[in-house]
Every structure is written in structure tokens, then in C-alpha cells.
Amino acid sequence: MADLTGIPTMNHLTTARIAPQVTRSHWLAPLAPRSRFSLRAAPQVLALAGAAFGVAPSEQACRAVVQGTRAALWLSPDEQLLLGLEADTASIQADLHAALGKAAYSLVDVSHRQTALEISGPNAADILNGASPLDLSLAAFPVGMCTRTLLDKADIILWRTQHDVFHIEVWRSFTDYVTGLLSVIAREYES
Amino acid sequence: MTQFRAAKGGRIDRSSAIEFEFDGQTYKAHPGDTLASALLANGVHLVGRSFKYHRPRGLLAAGAEEPNALVGVWRDSARYTPNLRATTVEIYPGLKAESQNRSPSLKFDRAGINGLFSRFIGAGFYYKTFMWPKTAWKSLYEPTIREAAGLGRAPTQADPDRYSNRHAHCDVLVVGAGAAGLSAARAAAAAGARVILCDEQAEMGGSLLSDVHTRINGLTASAWVASVLQELKANPRVTLLARTTAFGYFPHNHLGLNEKLTEHVAAPKPDQPRERLWQVRAAEVVLAMGAIERPLVFPGNDLPGILLADAARTYLQRYGVKVGSVVAVVTAHDSAYQTALDLHAAGVKIAVIADTRAEVSGDLAAQAWAAGIRIQHNSTVIGTRGKLRVTGIDLGQVSGSNVQPLESIACDTIIMSGGWTPSVHLHSQSRGKLVWDESLSAYIPGQTAERTRSVGSCRGIFGIAASLADGTKTGAEAAGTTSSITYEVEETRLANTGFIGALPQPGGKPGDKAFVDWQNDVTTKDLALAMREGFESVEHVKRYTTNGMATDQGKTSNMNALAFLAAGLDKPIPAVGLTTFRMPYTPVTFGSFAGYSRGELFDPVRRTAIHDWAQAQGAVFEDVGAWKRARYFPRGNEDMHAAVDRECVAVRQNCGIFDASTLGKIEVVGPDAATFLERLYVNSWANLKVGQSRYGILCREDGFVYDDGIIARLAEDRFHVTTTTGGAARVYAFMEDYLQTEWSDLSVWLTSISEQYSVIALQGPAARRVLEPLVTGVDVSAQALPHMGVVSGFICGIPMRLFRVSFTGELGFEINVPSDYGRAVWEAIYASGQPHGIVPYGTESMHVLRAEKGYIIVGQETDGTMTPDDVGLSWAIGKTKPDFVGKRSLARSSMHAKDRKQLVGLRTQDPKLVLEEGAQIVDSPGQKAPMRLIGHVTSSYHSAVLGHSIALAVVRGGRARVGQTLYVPMPTGDIPVIVTSTVFYDSEGAKLHG
Amino acid sequence: MLLIQCPYCGPRPELEFAYGGQAHIARPLKPADLNDDEWAAFLYMRVNTKGVHAERWRHARGCNRFFNALRDTTTDHFLAVYKTGEARPALNTAGGHS
Lengths: 191, 994, 98
Hints:
The complex is a heterotrimer.
Chain A: H1 14-17, E1 21-22, E2 27-30, E3 34-41, H2 43-53, E4 64-67, E5 70-76, E6 79-85, H3 89-100, E7 105-109, E8 114-120, H4 124-128, E9 146-151, E10 154-162, E11 165-171, H5 175-186
Helix pairs in contact in A: 2-3
Chain B: E1 18-22, E2 25-29, H1 35-41, E3 48-49, E4 56-57, E5 70-76, E6 79-85, E7 96-99, H2 125-129, H3 135-148, E8 163-175, H4 179-190, E9 195-198, E10 215-216, E11 219-220, H5 221-233, E12 238-241, E13 244-250, E14 254-260, E15 275-287, E16 291-293, E17 306-308, H6 309-319, E18 326-331, H7 335-345, E19 349-355, H8 363-370, E20 375-376, E21 379-386, E22 390-399, E23 402-410, E24 413-417, E25 420-422, H9 425-429, E26 434-437, E27 442-445, E28 452-454, H10 464-478, E29 489-490, E30 515-517, E31 522-523, H11 524-532, H12 538-545, H13 558-569, H14 573-576, H15 590-594, H16 611-616, E32 620-624, E33 627-632, H17 640-653, E34 655-659, E35 664-669, H18 673-680, E36 693-699, E37 705-715, E38 718-723, H19 728-741, E39 749-752, E40 757-763, H20 767-771, E41 775-776, E42 790-795, E43 798-803, E44 812-818, H21 822-833, E45 838-840, H22 843-852, H23 887-890, E46 901-908, E47 920-921, E48 935-943, E49 948-956, E50 965-970, E51 973-980
Parallel strand pairs in B: 1-7, 8-9, 8-15, 9-12, 15-28, 17-24, 18-19, 18-24, 19-20, 34-45
Antiparallel strand pairs in B: 1-2, 3-4, 5-6, 5-7, 10-11, 10-29, 13-14, 14-15, 16-25, 21-22, 22-23, 26-27, 30-31, 32-33, 34-40, 35-38, 35-39, 36-37, 37-38, 40-44, 41-42, 42-43, 43-44, 46-49, 46-51, 47-48, 48-49, 50-51
Helix pairs in contact in B: 4-5, 4-10, 6-7, 7-8, 11-13, 17-22
Chain C: E1 3-6, E2 10-13, E3 18-22, H1 36-44, E4 52-58, E5 66-72, E6 77-83
Antiparallel strand pairs in C: 1-2, 3-4, 4-5, 5-6
């Protein structure tokens, strides 16, 4: 019997179609696969989950909290996107179910639902603003801010991880579009 | 250089000469010229033919308001831009421009004869004349009119250029960088605000760039502009956008700006976008759009060589160009005196200053007297002379209501000024009110509807000192503070006078060819005719005469038309009303609006994890929403029908594999998950055991079928809900609506998992044998996993959710695996299926297979007016449930009427004949239109398995008609059809449960 | 494009929102108790206000929350936003800038 457990994930889209682009003005690249969970619950249950996950989720809207290899992104008052190492998928799930027990919550594995890209460099915000209608000034969109939003015609999660580094989560079938769009926008910074 | 280039002055680079072409002839220019200034420097006034009468036309203005000089600029065969105003086209080496709307040449134009017949083609001419016969409009009248009356031609090839888009935010957006705009931006920036300052021209400074007399803080006006721009450039919170037109003001201070990036560049770099669309969200907006000089309306006022006085001054002081040798000045405003003096100083002979006013005081008039320039008061113009260029002016003398001819004066140029019209376009676009200012004879901004402020001459504040003070105060206010900045200004003060309407003519007649709207060829006679024919509302007159409806949107014509109407109707101007200003302020290219949305990026293309495999197998794809789905997999020379026949037979006899990944999938989790589904779907869910699934129907509150899909219970509190491919997003939103706004008492959450899983449908008698060797941790036998059973396990070591379901009527499985593994698992199944004759099949075969079983597709068998019972699904309704979405509507008596359209099967007598989907159905042959239509065909295919065609249809009272013959009327005649059950294949379901 | 204050995420462009129609129309707890006219009124009858309109919006491309807003339909100015389930707020002064 074939055993496919060893095959690399993200074999289909990202690595096949998109080579990292390193240029003078920016860096656009797919990020490594990781485990992703959509955690839904009332705030007090979210806090309980945070203890088990190792990241206390933000109570402030649109903020991500990072702890070691894990991150919790506020997406909605009752919704956190949990990110961790791909290898930790099973243990994260088990730990959370154990910690939350009978509480009312929803934990759904969405590791493969979306892919992640990173765009960085001095023009990263300008390039994003080619398609993002948000105010990406540091005052309006500080480091640590995250939100679901639109990048032209695609839904994304936009997360500013550093001054000039943005992490983008995108549903996998929109990865080509988002990457293509950012690459086209970025072209004007190359000359 | 040329005769008309002034000896000195202007902002052009005289050290460098460049060549350009206009209508095939080569001319010389300097960097800094516009096409207009360069042509004038070469003595060329004749630049176009008018829209309707093909009258020779010259430059009227020096800016964006130019109505006449529309030209086409040619870079290569794919880069031809028509309808550009020569006044805004910057010269670059090798620029090639051509005039428009003339044949064969500007100087000899065949259609110029329209001018001779012009008395017959006045306002409403087209409406009145080309009415009959009706058919001639398309074949004769319209093409002929379009040929004769027109703008430039469109380019013939796709636009190869790139267009950029940028969203931006700021505290204060300042539109216009003249005295008021610069001082406003400076004051706002000084307060620490994030400022964007845009200006449509290549250089910022507005009228200050052609002002050689005014001193600001001891500097010349242009030196002051340079110092302010330097200061603003050094401020990182200020963005300066030259060549950028604010063309539209949208709700909540959202403005559209069009920035021209390469129009002025001889050889743009390939990566450089041609234009950039800025979408600016501004906390506060300061409009400093300036004012536009008003032309005077008199007979023959459209000859080449007749232009606005301020334009003449701009050409002289900014571009170093003299507009003529002998100039007659006609004016109602002091500012033309300054132009006359400047021209005089540059060696141009001023033949006369004909002033409409009875008396003129002030420094400029005195200076003109001192310079020996003849000034004629109480003047009017009763005619002009010349054909392709003005050669003389006929003055009249006004005395009371009496006009007497005075004399003819030879000249090669006439410059005119009727005073100034504030540019209230963007204020008006923002839904701000306009108020009539009697002292200015102008509309100025009144109450605002957005956070916007107008400053300087666009709100009737004229003069440099006043504009600077206004800009400073308002710019600071917009930034939420006050400013202590002051300016020392030395300038000549001008009286705010003007003339509006048509200059008086002998006998009170409108006079011949007194143009109000140059671009649309509207004269005072046209307006008078409209009034005589009963058009009194300005909106009606505008549409009847087309005044103000050209690409310049009446920038130079609207106020004169309004005043002429008011005089004719004997009403005050404000009582006549004002037409609405609409975006765009000046024309914007389609490319700019399209931005990146072209080619591959026009719309997202969604592909499944298995897409590339299907493509490598030669699959033909179809678009389903944004998804690409494999429609069929042709082998050799197969066409679609051959491929589908083969695929269907293979599935029925052996085994087929199908990519169902695009199905919508929602994980419904929480203690109240079952209750939630119970309330939402028509079915019962409380009794669904873990490890089972059920076909669910979702209705809207109006009782009509909205979506369907398989719903599996994975755990007491966890359901895996599938939706149709197209319904995924709207079903999710529909669910969230009920959950958040009606049933907040429920502890349940929805998570889209559509893209988390690749879904591989394995269907056919051999499906179990193909699957069995690949799975671990699950028993896929008929006993352990019966039809509609669901189990979790592993396939090839990959975790899966395995559904025993079928949309084909065969033994079937749907294997859900995390998407990254989708293709590898697919290939493993395909390999395992080789000994069993497995074939990949596409959406077309899927449609045939399900239709053979009478399974509906929501959106194909349903159209938003079908109840579950209409499509034969009343068995699915949980009869004992007290409520579900749509239940109350289904209880209405009309929902049970016997003549409702019901889903049935249809068979044709000719087994080869496949009905057309959408074809109508009648109950008797030979009906004449209007026929009594009783239904229509919803699905129709050839069934290779059954050896005949099959169709599904909705027919009034259809279930009671089984066995009846009905008719499908087609152009070739009525096709008799027999009404059957919807199930054509394996009606006992033996294969399904195998 | 409107700028809409999401009560959870702050001001966001209209692109991120889906309009949800008139607010404060509660689904009857027992629809079966309504006669056809009453049910039709619930299902179809909506006001077409010129002036202040209470309406639902969903931050569909953001936090995904439904909320309510008071919008002046003559000016498009938002006068208030409030969470689903909260009462319609009283307005001190209507009109003015958003």
C-alpha cells in the first residue's frame, strides 16, 4: 500500500508555481506549511484555551500575540486563528480538547485551507496599498495588527509582523491570484 | 527661433530645442512647452474642426478647460490616444500629434460645408429629421452622422501599457496648487498633518507661474512657489502629486485622482506604469481649484485666433509665446488689461481694448492709457472677419439698449475676458450646495455635505494676498489648528467685474454664429430656439441643445448659457437653476480604472489541488464561478459527447473518479449544532446518528429551495455540511445571519472548510475494490459502512473523512483529505483503479449520471420559485418539526396548488433527439403565439447507458401528467414528448446500496 | 465608497461590508401563529425611509459580525453604529458630518 505520509505538504500550489522573488524593493515568498486552527468560543473560554496553547489571545481587536513558535490572531470577538508548527498539529488539537473539556467551543483544523505569504522590504506597504484599501501607516496599522480584509478581489488575513514585514494568509485557491497581483504591483518599484 | 517666440521669459528651457510633428509637419519646440504653446510659437492657431459644423477652430484656452483643441497623440500602432487637449499635452522629442474630425485636412475639410447648411442643423435637428423611416437610423443616418460629427478614432490594438493603482489616506487632501492650495498645504503641513497636495499640471503653482508682477515676501511669485515646494518636499508627511487630476469626489471624502506618469516621457521604461489611479480617503479636503476665465459670446467668436485673455498671458509668461502680432482685446474684467500690457511690453501691437464697461478705474487702465493703448468703453462685438484665422473685429457701441456699429479693426488675434467662473466642480460633486453671489455674478460653494472646504478663487476669493490668507487660515483649520503664517504681498488689485450671457447686438437679435459651447457647437440661436420651442428648465435645454454635454462638461459654456436663458426667460439666474456637476472633472482613461484587473488578474482563477493532474490528462475545463472544473477528459479525437458517453458507461460498469473539491463545506460545531441545523434545514437532524449523513435541503424564509447538500454527523456536537459549489459563500452568510441575529441563544460556530479538503468522488460497482487496499483504520464493507455512512480513517497514511455517498446512483465514496495531499491521494486511487478500468470523469458526465437518477441541481432544476415538493423532495421535510426556515411559507395554500410546476422526466419519441435546455413546453401541438406555456426543460442529455435521450422538466401539475404527451415547440416544429418519472435508471436503488 | 465604522474593528471601507437590509425585524418566535397577511408583512414589507434609517451591516470581509447602523439616506452619513441586540440609540442631533 502506498504511504503518502512523507510527501511534502503544499506540493500543489505554492512551491510549484511561485518562486520566491527577491528584488531591490521587496521580498515576496511563500511561507512554510504550518498548523492552523480556527478557535471559536466566548472570551473566557478563549483565555482558557490560551493557557493550553501557550499564547494568551489578545482581547484587543485586530491584534496578534506571538509566543515562541505559536501565534494567536484576533479575527473576531469570538474567533482566534491559532498558528503553530506543522509537526505540532496533532498535539495542539489534543491539548486544546483536553483543556477545554466540556466548555462550549469550536476547534477546526484549517491547516490546509490557506497558505501563507510574506512580503517585506521598504516598499511592502506601498505594494500592498496597490490593492488593499486599508491605511497601512504605522499609526493606523501598527506592528502586531492583524485583520481579515480584501486584497483587490481576494479575501486575506493581513498581519504586520514587523515594521516592513507583512504576513498574508490566503485561501489556497486564491494564492496564485494574490501572488500574481503583488508581483505585478511590485514591478514599478524595480525600475 | 520662430516669429512668435518671445525674446525672453517663460519657464521653457530655451537652451534645448526639440522636434515634434503635428499633422505630419515637423515643428520645433522647447522642453517645458505644451503642444498648444509649441504650435502657437510656430504661428499655428488652426488645430481642429468643430464637432457638428466642422468649423475651423483654434486654441481657446491654455488649460484643462480647452474645448476646441482635441488631438490624437500617436506613439505606435497600439499607443494612439485620441481626444487629448493640446493644452495639457506636454511636448517631448518626437511627439506625433494629429488633429481630429477633419477629412482630408484641417485647411480643406469636405464636411466644412456643414457650415453652409448650419441654419438647417440647429438644436434638435437630429431628433426632428432622422425619424423616418425607422430602419434607416441604423443603416444610414447613424453611421453618416457618426462619420461627420465626431471625436477622435479609437486605437485598434489592445493597450500594452501598465496602469497602477494606489489606495492612500491622509489628514488633509489639497486639490490644486495655486496660491490658495499651496498656502493651505503649507499651513496644514506646519501643523503636523499628513498632507497630499495634487495638481493637474506638470508644474505646481497655478496662476502664479504666469504672474511676473506680484511679489510674495519679497520674492517673485514663481520663486515663492519654488521655496514652498522645496519646504513641502522636505516634509516626509507631505505627498506632492503633480500631473494629477482629482476627477471625482465620492462619499465620505473618498476622492479619485488620476496621475499621469509617462505621458510626457519620450521613451518610458517598460516597467513604469503609464498612469496611476489614486483612491484617497481624506479626513479633510481643501479644494483650491481656482477659477476659469469666461469667454464672451458674440457673432463669429469661434474663429482661430480668438482666445481667452488669461490664456494669452499664460502663453506669454509661462511659455514665452506671443499669441499674435496685432491683438484686439475685448473685456469685461481688469485682468485683460494686464495681459494687454504684458503683450505690449513683449512687442505685440494692441489694436484696441474694447471694454464692455462704461467706465474703468484702477492702475491697469491708467497704465494702458499711459502705454498709448486705445481703450473703447461701452463696447460690444458685432462680428469678426476671417476664414481660417481671424483678420478683423467689428466693434459696436452700446448706448442704453441701443447698439450701433462702431468700426472694423484689423487684427490677427482677439483676446477676451468675461470675468471669472469659480471652479465649484468637486464641491458640487460632493453634494455640497451652491449659492448665487450677485456681486460676483457667480455660483460659489454653499453648505457642504462632506468634510470639505473651498479656498481662494474657487470660492470667489480673488487676488493673491486674499487667496494666501484664505488658504493659510483654512489649511490650518483642516488640520485642526490655527496658523500664524502671514504673507507680505505686493500685487495689483483688480475689480471683480464681469459679463455673463451674450454681448448685446444691434436690434436685440442674437447674431449669427455666436458660440456658447465651442465643443458641442451650440450657439445663442440654438438656445433661443430651444426656448421658443418651450424648453425652459435648464436640464431640458441642456439635453435638447447638448450645451455643456461635451467632454469639457461646459467648463467655459455653462454660465453663459445660463445667463442667456435667464435673460430670454426674463428670470434671475438663480431661478433658472444649474445643471449638476458630475465626475470625471476631465476625462479619465479606461486603463486607469481597470488598473491591474486585466489578463490573468482580471478575476481570480481558482484551481483545485487536482487541477494540474487533470490538465496533464488533457481535461477540458469549464468555469464554475471562479473555479476551473474539469468538464470531460477526451481521449484521442473524442469530442465532448463521445468522451461523456465513454465516461458514463465506465462509471456504470466499472469505476470513475471525480474531483468534487469545489463543493462548499462548512463545519458546524458546538453543543447546539444539531439544534441549529434543525431550525435551519427542512430535515430532521436530532435523530441523525454519529457516523451517518443525510441529504439536506435549505429553504429561504419564503419557502423556496435555496441550497442542498449532504450533511454528516461526525460527533454529537460536530457536523460536516456540504453546499453546492456556487452556494458556498452565500449559504455561509445565510447561516451566519440566522446565528448572529436571530438565534444568539445557540452555542454553535461555523467554519468554512471548503478549501481544507480535497474531495475525491469514487463511483461505480468497482469502487470498493479500488478503495479497500488503500485505507487503514476503517471497514468499508457494505455492512460496516452502508449507504450514507461516514467514518474517519486513513488513506495511504493520510487522515481522511470517508463518506459513503453517491451522486451517480452507483456504489460511491467521497474521500475528503487535507488539500495538500489531494493530488497524491488522487493518483494513488487512480493507480489502484487501473486493474478495475477506472476513468476520470468531469462535470458533464456528472450531470448526465445524476440526471439519469433524477437528482436535482439547485439552480438548474430550481430557479428560486420551487418548493421542496415542486422538485419531488417533500419526503425530506421533517414533518414533526414545529418550525424551520421556510416552514410557515410552505403552509400557504398557494404552495400546494395542484397546478404548480413540478419536476418530471421527459422522453422524446426519437431516442437520438436531445431537447434544448430552457425550451418551453405546451400541452397541445400547433399552438399559435402567444402559446400557453406550462413549463420548461431544465436538464437534457443523451444517455449512453440507456441508449436514448433523457430530460428533466418542470411542468404545471406535472406529476399528474405522467404518461401524457406534451409538446416542445421549436422553430423546426413541435417535438412530442412523453412525461415520465424523474428516475430513468435503477429506480429500485439496488446499485446504490450494493 | 462609504467609510463604515465597524463596532469591533473601527473604520473600514465599504468594500469589506455586506448590506443586510432594514434592522430590528425579528423573526417571529412561532411563525405558525401568524396568519398569511402577518407573515407576508414580516417577510416582505420594509420601510423606504428618506432620512434616518436603521439598517443591518455585516463586516463580511473582516470580523464577520453583523451590526446595526443609523444612516441618513439623504446624505449617506452614519449617525451611529451599535451591536446586534442593542436598542436603537436615541440621536441628540441629526445631520452634520459623519
